[in-house]
Amino acid sequence: MEHVVVVGAGLAGWRAAEALRREGHGGRLTLVGAEPHLPYDRPPLSKDVLRGETAPEAVALAGREAIDAVVDELRLGQPAVALRAAERTIVLADGTELAADGIVLATGATPRRLPGTEGLDGVFVLRTLDDAVGLRAALGGAQRVVVVGAGFIGAEVAASCRSLGLEVDVVEALPAPLPPGLGALVGEACAQLHRDRGVTLHLGVGVQSIEGGGSGRVERVVLADGTVLEADVVVVGIGVRPETAWLEGSGLQVGDGVLCDPTCAALAESGGVAEGIVVAGDLCRWTNPLFDESMRVEHWDNAVEQAEAAARRLVQGLDALPYAPVPYFWSDQYDTKIQFAGRAGAGDEFAVVHGAVADGKWVGIYGRADRLVGVVAFSWPRHVVRYRRLIAERASFSEAVAAASG
Ligand SMILES: Cc1cc2nc3c(=O)[nH]c(=O)nc-3n(C[C@H](O)[C@H](O)[C@H](O)COP(=O)(O)OP(=O)(O)OC[C@H]3O[C@@H](n4cnc5c(N)ncnc54)[C@H](O)[C@@H]3O)c2cc1C
After folding, report:
1. The ligand 1 atom nearest the CA atom of 298
2. The overall pTM is greater than 0.70
3. Average pLDDT in the 151-177 region?
4. Ligand 1 centre and the CA of 146: distance in Å?
């Protein structure tokens, strides 16, 4: 390939660029990013950066020199606004058209916002470095923070704000924090972590309105049950949607993400694979053969591993193997590391196989039709590595439970 363009200069985009070189791409390589920053890492934004323990500049994934050694042309602050898949041509916001032999799509995801909060000072989402810098500055003058949404981002923001000594209320429409597929026990264990640290949780109740005063600054959050929470800062963490808006009319199949075959090759609207276009990271929806399930994974590990798989697909073509990972994520809240590998959902069997939930250090595993499909751990990383391997080997759930107790 003479020219490969990677769209999205985040984790998956940067790692795909590196992998393309490792896989032997010797032609031109262009990396396009909407943000003005060099590629950077997001996990610290809700943790160390928010607590002021890591400087924002320290989250860069690579320095300019290392990037220049991989990428011929770096177009930052320049979003792609359109793709013509059949011609493999990308249009940038300034009108530039980039024709390519290979394209990696890695535009990630964008946070959902609460309607009616536009233009209200003190209401934040947390996705970008600029979001984190703005939120950190606002926390400096704040006493009371309301976090809307108790998924991973909301729970981490609540933990970081509490660690800074702020009064924190968390509002969650579901009955417990974290994705419900992880099960009630995991949600309750996470809820307890926060209660123990003095966070007030409002579970099973939605937000009715977020209101400001005459100054245009947020002042309170009103819940559906009439509760009024005074707030200096509100952080909305109610999930993300894949960044596909710019791909409308591209000729690719777009649903909840860009639809791909099991090798991460994008599917064309006209049917079959859109040759020369691959997808990685939060944007990609593909069928994972290990679970025989269509999935889109919004976690760090997947962005890295899928970027490598997508780069292989581009360079090796049809020789590339399907991408069949055991998805993995971690979340740091206070001094607890929550880790999960595999899949979990309603109806799965669940057993605590090591430790005790009350001690804060424990491991649970998930089974489906007697197959081990998932593992969750609170502050016990060693076991996650072991069970993740067993999940990849399609081990039996009952045998794993028996082995743990024996
Ligand atoms: C605050 C925070 C904390 C997190 N913590 C954890 C954690 O503890 N553990 C974990 O497993 N995962 C965590 N994650 C998730 C993880 O960071 C993401 O899964 C990962 O960043 C996904 O990488 P990506 O490259 O697909 O998307 P992104 O990192 O979102 O990168 C996409 C890039 O594309 C750019 N872009 C968007 N549209 C365009 C366009 N039209 N043209 C050009 N460029 C465009 C964006 O500006 C962005 O830079 C966290 C995420 C956040 C936000």
Report:
1. 19
2. yes
3. 98
4. 24
